[in-house]
């Protein structure tokens, strides 16, 4: 294949990947989620998609691999390969702006910047031990108290919200509720 | 991938021979780490469907999922390392997880203890243990992010972020229970009194640690002690708990000499893969 043809195939692959939904949050694509690191093209036209797993134990990893391969096959770009690449570790900072909008429209509060939350996570080990005790909300427990940087409800935009649990229906989400519109919602945790 | 796969794999009365693991220090080092997560996962999964409230049921199983993902990655690495040092076949994650005998598991005794006291599952004991283990793992991953082994460093880069959430969750609960009602304080203190004697094992060095430092694979256990102790004592103080006096007791799980609870845990964990060798669905 000539260079231009390979380039076209790579572009076509990216276009296909932009339509492959994340199995756990189907409102966004694997590209929106920021887990597609690269699409490599060998000289013979063989495609390799490089993916970064979101969480170590994410049960969707295998499904994502299968969906990606099936979509490329269906578009006539297969048979392709998927390679998992751990480093650098995936971060929610890689979720695209469009992905964030889609999350919000789907009812999931998108993550803020990693490290941008006021009290989560607690850095007990690694140099901040002195302030560690203070970062624990003692009486209420952080389980019921909203973080100081109150999260906006994806339905009504109110920041009068509270966290119910740090862990939601999937490892990547926390469970919240809005005290204004009374609706529960999920928050994609910054990690 | 289908029902017939399982059926065809089943051999009536089949015996699956146990696999041994080489004494090589790097293999042992990786197994200590992986087994800590694997065995704690087994204990946490016992809460599935039984936790005090639904949110905590979900939280504990979510954390178990993170831990099993981390354990799989490190077991896979250990299995490749086995082939490197023996020149033999690679052992896969399932073989290492399910086909070793008790003496070949390298987890500290702390993680194999039952979820409660005197046969009763106890949430205070569970979150206290989670605090100790997540604090230890967080410190461990922070060091391992600089491991000379690129794969291990990559696993650590991901896991360190997950461990922070685990530690946060456990610390929140320990403070809430320890500084809570008279009953929750009593039970949390009782849990601390029970588990504190198992903590020193996490920071004891031996030849495996020396070799890991030498090769740059990872830190010696003692290198994690100062940061972990500072973090643990800060949370325990905030929780109004009394730190028990040091004990002369030393647990020995990381050397393969386990408590009486380990055999029962493994019997449950290994039953299916041992009874249906090669089973898949």
TrEMBL record, chain A:
Residues 148-189 form the PaaD zinc beta ribbon domain. Coiled coil: none annotated. Residues 11-73 form the MIP18 family-like domain. PANTHER family: 1,2-PHENYLACETYL-COA EPOXIDASE, SUBUNIT D-RELATED, FE-S PROTEIN MATURATION AUXILIARY FACTOR YITW. This is 1,2-phenylacetyl-CoA epoxidase subunit PaaD. The gene is paaD.
From TrEMBL, chain B:
The keyword Oxidoreductase applies. The keyword Mitochondrion does not apply. Pfam families: PaaA_PaaC. It is an enzyme of class 1 (oxidoreductase). InterPro entries: Aromatic_CoA_ox/epox, Ferritin-like, Ferritin-like_SF, PaaA_PaaC, PaaC. Keywords: Oxidoreductase. Its EC number is 1.14.13.149. GO terms for molecular function: phenylacetyl-CoA 1,2-epoxidase activity. This is 1,2-phenylacetyl-CoA epoxidase subunit PaaC.
């Amino acid at each position: 294949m000539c260079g231009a043809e390979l380039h076209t195939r790579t572009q076509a692959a990216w276009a296909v990947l932009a339509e492959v939904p994340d199995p756990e949050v189907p409102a966004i694509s694997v590209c929106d989620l920021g887990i597609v690191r690269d699409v490599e093209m060998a000289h013979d036209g063989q495609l390799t998609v490089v993916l970064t797993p979101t969480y170590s134990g994410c049960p969707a990893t295998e499904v994502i691999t299968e969906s990606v391969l099936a979509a490329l096959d269906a578009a006539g770009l297969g048979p392709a390969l998927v390679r998992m690449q751990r480093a650098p570790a995936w971060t929610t900072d890689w979720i695209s702006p469009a992905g964030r909008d889609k999350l919000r429209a789907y009812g999931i509060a998108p993550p803020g910047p990693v490290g941008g939350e006021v009290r989560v996570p607690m850095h007990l080990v690694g140099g901040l031990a002195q302030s560690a005790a203070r970062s624990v909300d003692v009486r209420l427990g952080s389980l019921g108290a909203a973080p100081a940087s109150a999260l906006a409800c994806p339905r009504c935009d109110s920041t009068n919200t509270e966290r119910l649990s740090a862990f939601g229906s999937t490892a990547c989400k926390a469970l919240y509720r809005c005290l204004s519109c009374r609706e529960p919602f999920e928050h994609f945790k910054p990690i | 991938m289908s029902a017939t796969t399982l059926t065809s794999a089943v051999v009536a009365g089949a015996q699956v021979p146990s696999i041994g693991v080489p004494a090589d220090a790097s293999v042992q080092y990786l197994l200590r780490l992986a087994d800590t997560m694997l065995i704690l996962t087994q204990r946490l999964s016992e809460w599935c469907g039984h936790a005090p409230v639904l949110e905590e049921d979900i939280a504990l199983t979510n954390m178990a999922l993170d831990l099993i993902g981390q354990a799989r990655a490190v077991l896979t690495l250990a299995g490749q390392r086995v082939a490197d040092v023996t020149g033999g076949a690679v052992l896969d994650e399932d073989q290492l997880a399910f086909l070793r005998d008790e003496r070949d598991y390298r987890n500290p005794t702390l993680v194999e203890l039952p979820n409660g006291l005197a046969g009763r599952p106890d949430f205070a004991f569970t979150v206290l243990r989670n605090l100790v283990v997540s604090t230890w793992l967080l410190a461990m991953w922070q060091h391992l992010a600089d491991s000379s082994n690129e794969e291990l460093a990559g696993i650590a880069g991901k896991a360190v972020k997950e461990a922070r959430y685990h530690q946060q969750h456990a610390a929140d609960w320990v403070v809430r229970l320890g500084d809570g009602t008279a009953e929750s304080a009593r039970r949390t203190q009782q849990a601390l009194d029970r588990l504190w004697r198992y903590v020193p094992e996490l920071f004891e060095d031996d030849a495996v640690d020396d070799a890991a430092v030498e090769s740059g694979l990872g830190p010696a256990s003692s290198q994690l002690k100062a940061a972990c102790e500072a973090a643990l004592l800060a949370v325990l103080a905030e929780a109004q708990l009394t730190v028990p006096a040091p004990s002369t007791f030393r647990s020995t799980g990381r050397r393969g000499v386990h408590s009486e609870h380990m055999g029962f845990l493994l019997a449950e964990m290994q039953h299916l893969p041992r009874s249906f060798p090669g089973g898949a669905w």
